[in-house]
Amino acid sequence: MNKIILLQDKGSVYMDYSFDEVIDRKDSLGLKWNNLDQQFGCEEVLPMWVADMDFSSPQPILDSLKGVLDTRILGYATPPDTLYNAIIHWQKEHHQMELTKDAILFAPGVVPSIAVIIQALTNEQDAIMIHDPVYTPFSTMIELNKRRCIRSTLLMENNQFKMDFEDIEKKLVEEQVKLFVLCNPQNPGGRVWSKQELLTLAELCKKYHVLIISDEIHADLIFSPYQFTSLVTLDPSYQDFVLTLSAATKTFNIAGVKLAMIFAHNPKLYKQIHLYQEAIEHSCLNTFGYVATETAFTQCGPWLEQLMARLEENLTMVCHFFDTRLPQVNYMKPQGTYLFWFDCSSLGLTDEELMNHFIHVGKIALNAGVAYGPGGSQYMRLNFAAPKVLIEEGLKRIKFAFEQ
Ligand SMILES: Cc1ncc(COP(=O)(O)O)c(C=O)c1O
Q1: From the CA of 99, how far away is ligand 1's center (Å)?
Q2: pLDDT, tens digit, for every residue of 150-199?
Q3: For the chain, counts of helices (H) and of strands (E)
Q4: Which domains are delineated in the chain?
Q5: Residues in contact with ligand 1 (CB, 6 Å cut-off)
């Protein structure tokens, strides 16, 4: 149970949160823990895959959602000014982003926002560039919307991803790329792109008139000493061609409420996206999303601080385990996110065999690296946002899989 120890600091509710409680998610609709047999062909797997956390969402959010139920009428909702102010304040305080209400659009998710922007601002067969590997729905949205997906493979230096600017520039020109979809911090590798890397990428896109979507959904999940930089804040001119995607859902473990924001500083782009959203009736969204997002940004700062301390501990535990028990396995120590990307090539299996091996031998559900693009081949992604007993069990299962 969450125990209240202190109340009210500038609107934030201080509580001593428990990140040890194992909450039975089998009775919820949670994608991560349910229908494992159908999803993985094995009911007994320990699910450490999709990116939500096995920690309780913050108590102030749960309370505010109960408050919605107490109104007893769940009619249509409209986003209040207090929500806009909460977003503007959070972005300014945490990411030095200057925002006004007329630059904020709501959407039922970050992935739906990518789809809407693709549809509103590009045409069929246009080229859209992404990194490889990167969060799977980037390519899915591009391809399902009949645009051409151009991948620039990330390079590896000291077990961290880095961008290949030569390759990016060559392809921007050759393929006449219209849009770049950036993931910062990077999923699956957990890279927090440096200012210099972001500047170089943005300058290339500016030079060749390429719009950028900067998916910053993991922006609040950063490990010390790394510093997240929101791309659009680097130079005032970037406001013309950068669209930032943000949400409280990943940070505060409320992915199911489905609310995200598009920050469009350029009024012309704002209008185009807004018109498109109206055409597909994306303007009236979920009451719970509005309420949870406002509560997250106004009352849950202390929860986030405690969460980050716990994620740091979990990460130390995972790295120590790999260093001491599986020293032959290379991994990428994430600078942000709660995702751990490790190399399974020492098993000598194909990508398909690898996934099956972890499921049927290790009895653990991870994300297959190859799903993030060809550059993810031979890797697996572990989600370490869970109580320590589950992490310990997961690591045992991974070790067992490596030993067989
Ligand atoms: C980089 C990235 N973008 C977007 C999402 C999902 O966003 P949404 O649920 O708002 O569509 C995720 C979820 O893991 C993600 O990692």
Answers
A1: 22
A2: 999 999 999 999 999 999 999 999 999 999 999 999 999 999 999 999 99
A3: 12, 17
A4: 3-57+301-403 (3.90.1150.10), 81-298 (3.40.640.10)
A5: 51, 109-111, 135, 183, 187, 215, 217, 247, 249, 255, 260
